[in-house]
Amino acid sequence: MRILGIESSCDETAVAVLECSGERDFKILSNEVASQIQVHARYGGVVPEIASRAHCETITNLVKTALNNASVNPKELDAVAVTAFPGLIGALLVGVNFAKGFAYQNNLPLYAVDHIKGHIASNYLTNDLRPPFIAFVASGGHTSIILVEDYRKHTVIGGTRDDAMGEAFDKIARVMGMPYPGGAAMDKLSYEGKNPVKFPSAAIKDDTLDFSFSGIKTAALNYINSSNQKGEEFNKADIAAGFTKAAVESVIVKLGEAFKRYPNIKTIALAGGVAANSHLRNALVEFSKKHKLKLFMPELKYCGDNGAMIAAAGYFEYLSGEKAELNLNAEASRFEE
């Protein structure tokens, strides 16, 4: 079967056509992404209203491009999958409403997809990852440790109580005058730091598997502001190296605790935009070796938001038989376990 996947939860309009068969045999026929980075760069972050308008301007032609590049016409599709939650509500509504109209016009079943499950499903596109496993999902808006017991059964066992990991990276980068999005620039600059600044851990010291990236972000901002007020120069590379080290080590601490709680789980998966961070990827390689775990990470091109991951997650919704109705609405903060 062929599924049209539509993603518009934040600042990237993405559409893909995925050919699916069996339990999870996937072939990507097309995977188109229209980024809004240049639009939002002038503001140093995503402006929700501008993002929504850009989705409106882009989505129709992007769907046409995806279908043309896949050499598929609407009548040859079998289903439509769309990100319905969580995300920026205005941005989500663009994708959801387009998907409903497209599905109705072409008499296709519609499937609602959880954005976080979509990121996890990015691993299924090119890896032989199979449940059960523990996933660490991190992006500009989400940071969670998730127990994946089945392709559709996901339980959040830990996560950030405030800022997302990716948002913290972007904010520190912006304050230091680095271009948006700052995560990639911070990753690269970190390697140049010779004397990393020491920052507190983001791992909350209690019996949960939770994080607080607000504290570590504030500590970095205070360090920068204090230096500016004193007229002292600060080394951007040392700040980037210290912040990256503290953030990554925090993740490793909580993942270590997670696998102690679930000793029968022997597989770990990484997902989300921050999954492209080389320091995090390297740390997880060492972590998995130390604890004798199987590690799965998506290809770099599938770490960011894309339609193929939504179509893959949608395939499992199709297998479950749980179709969405045409009164489907977007939800900004919902997570479906």
Brief overview, please?
This protein is α/β, with parallel strands linked by helices and 337 residues long.
Mind explaining what this structure looks like?
The protein is α/β, with parallel strands linked by helices. The chain folds into 2 domains: 2-122 and 302-320, Nucleotidyltransferase, domain 5 (2-Layer Sandwich); 130-297, Nucleotidyltransferase, domain 5. Helices cover 42% and strands 19% of the residues. It is built from 10 helices and 10 strands. It has helices at residues 37-41, 48-69, 89-105, 115-121, 165-175, 182-190, 213-229, 236-261, 278-290, 307-320, and strands spanning 2-7, 12-21, 25-35, 79-85, 110-114, 133-138, 143-148, 154-159, 267-271, 294-296. A 5-stranded mixed beta sheet has the order 3-2-1-4-5, with helices on both faces. Helix 9 (278-290) links the parallel strand 9 and strand 10. Helix 4 crosses helix 10. The longest helix is centred in the C-terminal third of the chain and has 26 residues, at 236-261. The chain is globular. It starts with a strand and ends in a 17-residue tail after the last helix. The relative contact order is 0.19.
Give the domain tally.
Answer: 2
State the CATH topology of the largest domain. Answer: Nucleotidyltransferase, domain 5
Structural class: alpha/beta
Number of helices: 10
Please provide the ordered H/E string of secondary-structure elements: EEEHHEHEHEEEHHHHEHEH
Largest sheet: 5 strands, mixed
Secondary-structure arrangement, i.e. CATH architecture of the largest domain: 2-Layer Sandwich
Report how far apart the termini are. Answer: 25 Å
CATH superfamily of the largest domain: ATPase, nucleotide binding domain
Question: So what's the CATH class of the largest domain?
Answer: Alpha Beta
**Poorly predicted runs of 5 or more residues:** none
Shape: globular
- Rg over CA atoms, rounded to whole Å, is 20 Å
Strand order of the largest sheet: 3-2-1-4-5
User: How confident overall, as mean pLDDT?
Assistant: 95
Report the count of strand segments: 10
Beta-strand portion reads: 15-25%
Determine the fraction of residues in helical runs and give it as a percent range. 40-55%
